[in-house]
Amino acid sequence: MIGRGLARIGLYLLMSLIPLSAVQAEPILIAHRGASGERPEHTLAAYERAIDQGADFIEPDLVLTKDGVLVARHENEIGGTTDVADHPEFADRKTSKTIDGVAMTGWFTEDFTLAELRTLRARERLPDVRPANRRFDDLYPIATFEEILKLVRAKEAEAGRRIGLYPETKHPSYFASLGLPHQAALLDLLGRYGYQSEADPVFIQSFEVGNLKALRAASRLRLIQLVDAEGGPTDLPGTTYADMLTVQGLTDIATYADGLGPSAALIIAPEGPTALVGRAHDAGLQVHVWTLRMENIFLPAQYQRADDPQGRGDFASWVRAIAATGVDGVFSDFPGQAKAALESVR
């Protein structure tokens, strides 16, 4: 046992000395919420499958519990992704809230302790689109961020390669207003597991700006400013994402972030590729595009297939088209299939 432990320590030391560019080809492949096209998202099973399929990074969306623990959920409202509605003991927790200007009714992680959340089980978020995933409903608990870190460490030792982490802080201003800021808990956990500098395989992402600036002041870990084709950061109500994608806007982003996370619609418009990748690179920013999915409902018209029994389109061609724009990374719900498509053009 001692020999095996020393071997693992030696492996981590060796891997930490190898630049990421030497062991990971471009664009990097980020498993969006794990292999979420094949398992319920944000479960350890989804992350493990993504790692086994060769993903370079896994992406947990992080929200907080009432007692300040980071857990992986797409949103803090969990009525659609867990069996909470089947628990009569939590019936009185159902409530209505306004999160980032959007009114919603359901159950929210910040109203549960971790112990209470651990009694719930995860369910497929898109059952109509991914009915096959429903066979995994109610099998897996909600994962904590620390459990994800432990999984990554174990899989690194098993596979002999670095596995990156790409956490997103969800609704950071909202959680901070409740006295539950992401920053301290996130940086503390990452630090305890050895992630402390820009050389470590970590990107922290957010659609907001203020928390990224606060993270930059407190950490050397790499940061990504997420942007969409519409709207703007919740914490800057007078600013749109369009404003942020001008030459000056990208220059401003580069003062606190290392990269840009645009939606695919900002990279390839209906009329063809945009100039965003080049502008971002000129500003010194990496570009990691989200999210590439196989189903027709998520694909541009030219990549859809009407005759596929699973409702899937020409995913490989879509992945290759995005890669051809020069992006530095891609998010996908289907890391195995995306990896095969990327490898076909390398």
Automatic annotation (TrEMBL):
InterPro entries: GP_PDE_dom, PLC-like_Pdiesterase_TIM-brl. The keyword Lipoprotein does not apply. GO terms for cellular component: periplasmic space. Its EC number is 3.1.4.46. Gene3D superfamilies: Phosphatidylinositol (PI) phosphodiesterase (3.20.20.190). SUPFAM superfamilies: PLC-like phosphodiesterases. One of its GO terms (biological process) is lipid metabolic process. Belongs to the glycerophosphoryl diester phosphodiesterase family. This is glycerophosphodiester phosphodiesterase. The lineage of its organism: Bacteria, Pseudomonadati, Pseudomonadota, Alphaproteobacteria, Sphingomonadales.
